Amino acid sequence: MKNILVTGGAGFIGSNFINHILEERDDYFIINLDKLTYAGNLENLKPSEKNKNYTFVNGDICNSELVNYLFEKHKIKYVINFAAESHVDRSILGSEIFYRTNVVGTSVLLDTARKFEVEKFLQVSTDEVYGSLGKEGLFTENNSLSPNSPYSSSKAAADLAALSFHHTYGLPVVVTRCSNNYGPFQFPEKLIPLMIINSLNDKKLPVYGDGMNVRDWIYVIDHNIAINTVFEKGRVGEVYNIGASNEMPNIEIIKLVLKHLEKPEDLIQFVKDRPGHDRRYAIDSSKIQSELGWKPEFSFEEAINKTIDWYVRNKDWWSKIISGEYLKYYEKQYKM
Ligand code: NAD
Ligand code: DAU
Predict the structure, then answer these.
(1) Does the C-beta of 85 come closer than 6 Å to ligand 2?
(2) For residue 30, is it within any domain?
(3) Could you say which of 168, 171, 204, 335 would form a disulfide bridge with 269 (CB–CB 3.0 to 4.6 Å)?
């Protein structure tokens, strides 16, 4: 049995990871440590909550005493660190919690992992650490890091801290840098769920700048299969880019959502651009494909339709969210 500390497992990607992997594997015991911030939601984990190979702990990765206690109690030998403050716009409104959770929290996990001699530490990083691309080219693992937002700079610090623990202490670290995810249980502050939910509610769709910023989209299950592949087979000390070669300007995705939901394009509203808005991200994932044999399984067309339909069917899930703390954030961010 592999005792794995999964942090941030009540968020979008972490909960999809836990639900998926517990279906696939009976040799993983997962201890999910999550602070349940605004983005953490135990409802995401309904499929796993009764699984005998799963336990939940409500707590902060910055709490060194708690983290030490959990390593000792559960004889943890593996860590997958999803926990983070993850939204760029919120990091622009206030950065402190980003540096605290993403940098200090990761350093607490690294120190404890070193003390307990873990066998693998997977740091879930992001392609945003590379900065922004021009019209041509792709991010490879050899690109220099050039993060532009408080969020991405905090993720770059955590990513480099993890690699430094490998270099200095020989901690068996692997780092993944993935592109933009979409799928079920994504918090409505992010582009795709925000546009789906606003369309369903006949609310304006706020498009930053000219809508021509490009993101490279991957279905969350493909990301999670890649994470497990790197977790099992990735060479320690290495970085693996993850992406599905699906670049799209934001405005195209928004029009696609409107078309699928049969809503009019005049819901689109161009608004003030995000400060420091990265123009284009695009991932070269040839390293994980050739070295570890991973490749994306879902086509964009199939998975985006599945995702939109999931939000249509799961109004109960998102309507609770958009009426709470999110409403205050929305009014502040979009000045409505
Ligand atoms: P999310 O915001 O949906 O979830 C984050 C989770 O972390 C929440 O459950 C939250 O409660 C928890 N958390 C926050 N602070 C914590 C703390 N101090 N201690 C314990 N738990 C804490 O984020 P997500 O979109 O699921 O992203 C997960 C990870 O993947 C992040 O590290 C993010 O940087 C990375 N990533 C995300 C994307 C994407 O497109 N969403 C792409 C690449 C990488
Ligand atoms: O690339 C990986 C990153 O993708 C992850 O590391 C981050 O955690 C994740 O949040 C995501 O960051 P982005 O900033 O790319 O995602 P977001 O959904 O916030 O925005 C996607 C694009 O849509 C971006 O160009 C900004 C634009 N946008 C976003 C919002 C919320 C709008 O035009 N209007 C909006 O209201």
Answers:
(1) no
(2) yes
(3) 204
